[in-house]
Amino acid sequence: MTRMTRDRALSPEELAEVVAADIPAGAYVNLGIGQPTLVSNYLTPEDDVTLHTENGMLGMGAQAHGEEVDPDLINAGKIPVKETEGCSYFHHADSFAMMRGGHLDCCVLGAFQVDRNGNLANWHTGKPDAIPAVGGAMDLATGAKQTFVMMTLTAKNGQPKLVEECTMPLTGVGCVSRIYTDQAVFLIEGDGSVVVRETFGCDVEAVQELVPFALERA
Amino acid sequence: MTRMTRDRALSPEELAEVVAADIPAGAYVNLGIGQPTLVSNYLTPEDDVTLHTENGMLGMGAQAHGEEVDPDLINAGKIPVKETEGCSYFHHADSFAMMRGGHLDCCVLGAFQVDRNGNLANWHTGKPDAIPAVGGAMDLATGAKQTFVMMTLTAKNGQPKLVEECTMPLTGVGCVSRIYTDQAVFLIEGDGSVVVRETFGCDVEAVQELVPFALERA
Amino acid sequence: MLNVVECAAAAVAPIKNGSTVMIGGFGVAGQPVELIDALIEEGATDLTVVNNNAGNGDVGLAKLISLGRVRKIICSFPRQADSHHFDAKYHAGEIELEAVPQGNLAERIRAAGAGIGAFFTPTGYGTPLAEGKEVRELGGKMQILELPITADFSLTKAVTADTAGNLVYRKTARNFGPIMAAAATHSIVQVSNVVQRGQLDPEVVVTPGIYVDTVVAIDSPAVGQA
Amino acid sequence: MLNVVECAAAAVAPIKNGSTVMIGGFGVAGQPVELIDALIEEGATDLTVVNNNAGNGDVGLAKLISLGRVRKIICSFPRQADSHHFDAKYHAGEIELEAVPQGNLAERIRAAGAGIGAFFTPTGYGTPLAEGKEVRELGGKMQILELPITADFSLTKAVTADTAGNLVYRKTARNFGPIMAAAATHSIVQVSNVVQRGQLDPEVVVTPGIYVDTVVAIDSPAVGQA
Hints:
Chains C, D: Pfam families: CoA_trans. Chains C, D: This is 3-oxoacid CoA-transferase subunit A. Chains C, D: Belongs to the 3-oxoacid CoA-transferase subunit A family. Chains C, D: InterPro entries: 3-oxoacid_CoA-transf_A, CoA_trans_fam_I, CoA_transf_BS, NagB/RpiA_transferase-like. The complex is a heterotetramer, with two copies of chain A (218 residues) and two copies of chain C (226 residues). With 218 residues, chain A is of the alpha/beta class. Chain A is built from four helices and 13 strands. Chain A has helices at residues 12-22, 92-100, 137-143, 204-208, and strands at 28-31, 50-53, 57-63, 81-89, 106-109, 113-115, 120-121, 147-151, 162-163, 176-181, 184-188, 194-199, 216-217. In chain A, the strands form two sheets. Chain A has a ten-stranded mixed sheet, with helices on both faces. A three-stranded mixed sheet of chain A has the order 7-6-9, with no helix packed on it. The longest helix of chain A has 11 residues, at 12-22. The two termini of chain A are 17 Å apart. The mean pLDDT of chain A is 95. The radius of gyration of chain C is 18 Å and the shape is globular. In chain C, the strands form three sheets. An eight-stranded parallel sheet of chain C has the order 1-14-12-9-2-3-4-5, sandwiched between helices. A three-stranded antiparallel sheet of chain C has the order 6-8-7. By secondary structure, chain C is α/β, with parallel strands linked by helices. In chain C, a hairpin with a 4-residue loop joins strand 10 and strand 11 (167-168). Chain C is built from six helices and 14 strands. Helix content of chain C is 22%, strand content 27%. Chain C has one domain (3-217): Glutaconate Coenzyme A-transferase, CATH 3.40.1080.10. The longest helix of chain C is centred in the middle third of the chain and has 13 residues, at 102-114. Chain C has helices at residues 8-12, 33-42, 61-66, 84-91, 102-114, 177-183; strands at residues 3-5, 20-23, 47-50, 70-75, 96-99, 118-121, 135-138, 141-146, 151-157, 160-162, 167-168, 184-191, 193-195, 214-217. Classes of the chains: A alpha/beta (218), C alpha/beta (226). Strand 6 of chain C pairs antiparallel with strand 6 (118-121) of chain D, so a sheet runs across the interface.
């Protein structure tokens, strides 16, 4: 696969296309709620990727509209979806067993913070009065063979989201293997080192300025 | 229900009829391999008893013969059986979950020994060179709401089978609630006392002579 | 033995104050709306509720919570855009919350039905939801010990029951139904229709009748076609 | 991704010496006869086999054992009227046996597929099969800790596969098939026929295709009619 060269930070849609290109043909994948859902728009039939939704379906199709909407057929974000040929239904314990048993090749999740050891924080801001609501995030982060994160490199307030050590409550320990951001793609090596695989519209030095530890070059 | 009066030790078939009469209407029941299987001959449609077979079926029917035989439809004793209306199939983990989760009202098992505390030995003679083969006996004995034992009161060599304390390797601890034998029915009370509910063709004194601890009268 | 009752009120009548009640559904799919409404009418209070969420909008579980009838909720995702009734009770200290990762919730419910006393899982290790839980390394992974979630009653929804209590579901409305029916001491199921024994193919039964205590047929609004 | 192969020999070709192989079936029902025969031909040795039994008569698993290709067997019921090949190897100290209560066998296989690191169960407590196992009282019952049984390969039998790998089974031939396919790293399934994606009703799929690596269609002798 040829890497596209880009001369600016990526839109969420463009980033979704980068992620989609990295999902191997034939993979079983769970796309988290929000930005990761966009990835499905860039998967082609030739990719033969099968989508899992944790509320009990393998082979989830595209969003349903109008008369296609069936209230008994929704995804984990509670959005009506369609079937694909070869899909199947199962109950919640079987669905999470599928995830937790390491059968999904990959899941793509959003994040508040990821640290150099692949620790993920994406469910709780840590504010003392926040109501904890985790859903399936911990199961996905821990259960999939690979966990990809899709996020902006910095928060709206400019704070780094790729950090030395997560300060927010964790979702999973050492579970993230790649981070896709608007400015760069990072590979988490597992020994505390993080490699910049590619940058978008900037050079590695510019990315380094936004990350509070020393990055490795690809 | 009127208790029949009997003037002699019971045949296995007669004993099976006694057991069948004690199974509540509407019960879900597992009948062990061997003598307990006879109980099914004395269950009537009015009893509405549903039979479970641990190889993955609820609503097991009678033994299949001739052209009814389907190699894909067998019971736990590997004997061809038939369907009943309202039956269902499931895999082995679901089948044992049904048993182990306490959903069966009753199971009926054979035994080598039962002791006054309801401990059961029915899978292994304890001979040092014997090959251990347990099958589903431990799951049944421990998982059903009630475990009934069907056996002769004494072994072929005259040794008691209802004993102070099992000497053979156990199948389950404190799991037996009733013992149906050719000479008497016993209720295991849970505090170490055993009540003679009824006798067949003999009096309680004669039964007491065959049991090495003091029995209680009903 | 299966009890087929005439109305939702009769189905939920046995639910007493202080009961633990599992409620099926993920979003609207599989939500036993009429049974929840009957429970609201019936009046039992001091309830512990097990559900994936903590109520939406002003109806159903949200209404039960707003009426102060729920002492504790065990769920994976309480905070939603329209969970204002739960949010208010929670911030007022009037409802207890046990937040559980969704897979642990499902597996703990399954464990209750399957007679599993406890299990180790990697999900949640190293997070605030594992605080105080036993930790052990197994198979090269750090894991935490989780206990079954049992219940006195379950309220779930299926599409068809036969008179032996066997159930089939429809699409993603299956979700928590089968495991909750198996876990609860007394399972109550609303279905769209009841057929005679023998009318369901034994190969496609999802919940065998052994797990079903009470069934009520309720005319639900027509669902879309697949 | 699913690999549909032409013959049983191609299906079992990846099985190497020293592998752990789960073999489905309970009695003849669900027994993947042609896959076992292919494994015998293929020659892998020093195998650990997980099955409910330890072989019957002189064919299939019994033959594999008689050829000295099985180092260890994990099963619930090795001793049978016609298990003479296993019996002889066992008494000669030439095969290792792990005897497991059938429900623990099924649940341990399920645990491997479901990512459960270990679980507590009352089954086996106080018996010789619990010797050396950790004991804990949970829910008022004495329970023992059991570990998952994992495998490199599974050989199972279903009736129909679609080209997405989804499987349906037939009657009590379902038995260990679904849990073994989920537990093994590489699952190999023989079916009577393969249909196109979309030909199986998604509501009745028993094993979703994610659990299936290799499928081979084999003309089996016709089975009886229900």
